[in-house]
Amino acid sequence: MKDLHSLPKVRDSWSYLYVEHCIIDQDQKAIMLHDKQGKVPVPCASLAALFLGPGTSITHAAIRTLADSGCLVSWVGEESVRFYAQGMGETRSSKRLLHQTRLWADPEKRMQVVRRMYEMRFSETLDPSLTLVQIRGKEGMRVREAYGKASAETGIAWSGRSYKRERWENADGINRALSAANSCLYGVCHAAIVSAGYSPALGFIHTGKMLSFVYDIADLYKTEITVPVAFRAIVEGPLGIETRVRKQCRDHFQSTGILQKIIPDIEHVLELEGINEESLPDFDLSDDPPGGLWDPKKGEAMGGTNWADEEEKNGSHSA
After folding, report:
1. Range of 68's domain?
2. If I label 147, which of 23, 57, 136, 265 is the partner at 20 to 30 A Cα–Cα?
3. Residues 81-114: pLDDT tens digits?
């Protein structure tokens, strides 16, 4: 049996659920949402991420049920346009995190990952002689063309990406729609990254933020998902734009099966394709050992050991 705590089947899950102004408690092996309209059961075992918006209260038992089900819980602002905190993902192994860290810490290997990420956005192979600055220039042209195409197809005027969080209401409709759509995409990518055991902070293209790797992965899909969704939503009118965008993103994520793509795409950029899941450590979660200890010579020494006893046993402990 494969260890789902090492590599969870997030591709089989719903993408996400956003809730606000409600109370959440445990209901057997699921959770129950209570609001002024009544109550709704949610089978959290099939949910990848739960976003808790303003006015939400959740019980300890519900959080434990969600964690046991491998559902990432995130505390967010209204319409998910702000991110405040997150719970723990499903994985119990650090193997993928350590691999990600080794690539991130080696400038040459990091550059290889960056090039693979950029190449995934183009329909052609990038010339090996291109510098990173030149690649960024090509990417800028690709994104500009995507916005221009969406504008021409929908008739929505486009004057550039411009908005400020502290002045959200002053942004034009299309910029608010894009921000709302991107926020949904970040949440789904975040859930997949954490569930698979990677760090959302160790970005390769982006850096300096706790969600840098989330931005790296989300950028692989923006021009094919959030840009067209946002422009189509604006065509329907400016009222309730954030809510409509969020619902359309949810439906699009489900119909396109984006969760089936994210983890394989991460494995591609980090050169982990074809990894043998059976080789991953199989921990007894009722008594999860602390793991090994880093050693500069051996690489890893035995954990859960009193090393004073080991010193005395080997006769190297000085009185």
Report:
1. 10-86
2. 265
3. 566 777 765 555 678 888 999 999 999 999 999 9
- State pLDDT tens for residues 137-154: 999 999 999 999 999 999
Domain count, the chain: 2
User: 217: burial class by Cβ within 10 Å (0-12, 13-18, 19+)?
Assistant: buried
Alpha-carbon distances, residue 256 vs 47, 175, 192, 219, 261 (angstroms): 16, 24, 16, 17, 9
pTM: 0.69
Residues 196 and 237 in one domain: yes
Q: How many alpha carbons lie under 13 Å from residue 31 in its C-beta half-sphere? A: 28
With helix as H, strand as E and coil as C, how does 39-56 read?
EEEECHHHECEEEECCCE
Name the pLDDT band for 175 (thresholds 50, 70, 90): confident
- CB contact set of 17 (below 8 Å; sequence gap of 6+): 42, 47, 49, 50, 51
For range 187-202, the mean pLDDT: 85
CB-count burial class (<10 Å; 0-12, 13-18, 19+) for 168: middle
- Assign residue 78 the CATH number of its domain: 3.100.10.20
* Burial of 95 from C-beta contacts in 10 A (0-12 / 13-18 / 19+): middle
